[in-house]
Design a protein that fits this description.
alpha/beta, Oxidized Rhodanese, domain 1, 2 domains, five-stranded parallel sheet, 10 helices
Amino acid sequence: MSEELPASVSVSWLRDHLGEPGLVVVDASTHLTLPASGAYTVEPGRATYAAEHIPGALFADLLTDFADPDSAQPWTVPTSARFAAAAGALGIGDGTRVVVYDQHDGYWATRFWWQLRLEGFDAVAVLDGGLPAWRAAGNPVTDEPAVAAPATFTAHRRPELLRSTREVLAAVDDEKTVIVNVLDPETYRGERSSYARNGHIPGSVNVPVALIRDASGELKPVAELRALFAEAGLLDPAITPVTYCGGGIAATGVAHALALAGRDDVAVYDGSLTAWTADESLPLVTGPNPR
């Protein structure tokens, strides 16, 4: 069994532990462009990883290796068997620890953190601030490719951390569930067109993911995160938060911050608005946050 890590580690922690046996550092960078209006575009971050990365870091392609190739949507959760094979190829397995980062806002890193936890692997932390914080602290980067030592990853799916469209629809009127939209307020209210239809899932509250980080891109102190989530009613042990966004990426950022605040049971709606708005039979509402 792997030694557990906190949900987040600092640049100084990684600098002090880099190169230790059993520590796997993963760059999960993916580049998503969300225009002022219209559909987003996405591409793997392999080229930018090749240009520079933390020494020894391996690249995880969340659009191919760690996604369902038969899904109509990008980066949908794959089968446990597919995930286990890809994780093992990166050297992630029993007895290893993982620190994951990305080159931008950190939400692709939290996506991989969540996917590992979904498959029963708890020894994973997100590098707070990602590659920008690593570089800002004067730490080295390299373009030297890293070679993985293959391992055996044993998956134990935790279905309670994942929600389907059908399950979210069933939870709309469930008093024990709080559905959380983590997008910007304009998109939440239906004033910005980024998906097939405008608006938010009925009953969902708006907790923008942008509120969990400071101007430097690092997470706000846990006390501030707890205050934010308490105000939205997300720390009540009698309810289960289910986060969603456009495609299940930023939603994992809030799930990760909630874990830091003491809730490691948050579920993520993987299809999010990309799936929801594609089905015209599913309801959407517009207007302000009800809380």
